[in-house]
Amino acid sequence: xxxxxxxxxxxxxxxxxxxxxxxxxxxxxxxxxxxxxxxxxxxxxxxxxxxxxxxxxxxxxxxxxxxxxxxxxxxxxxxxxxxxxxxxxxxxxxxxxxxxxxxxxxxxxxxxxxxxxxxxxxxxxxxxxxxxxxxxxxxxxxxxxxxxxxxxxxxxxxxxxxxxxxxxxxxxxxxxxxxx
Length: 180
Prior knowledge:
This protein has helices at 10-33, 37-46, 57-71, 75-100, 108-114, 118-123, 129-145, 151-164, 166-179; strands spanning 2-3, 8-9. By secondary structure, it is mostly helical. Strands 1-2 form a two-stranded antiparallel ribbon.
């Protein structure tokens, strides 16, 4: 089974999702027992009365509050939503690496193993800016490989990154200027 959009194997997506969700569960247990940004975002969303629309941290509070107040999500469910963003980022990263290696079979396992790196999966799996920023960066990378056909992906990746990490998005502007 092959995904036409990403030119990647659907089983890779399944394995990536299961692996990433395992790390999300570990991160949830880790953050529930220690003070972390993840728990701070969730607890603040329970008491967020007004929205101060600013890029970065405030948008993370607003998004977390939206999930909690509109869908009545628990800490675990909210964490899994954020984790889904970074898991999609991993799929875009995998597709990008496969494409730039020209689908060379001898690099297939190295590329696959790169998306299974524990540190990427652990730190991008919780509530916070990292999961969304990672998704935005991976979407940008995938879009930059074929600018003419993936310009919408570039715009979306840039918007995600701009909202969460505006200083990082600014770094991508010259790249975008050169490629367009």
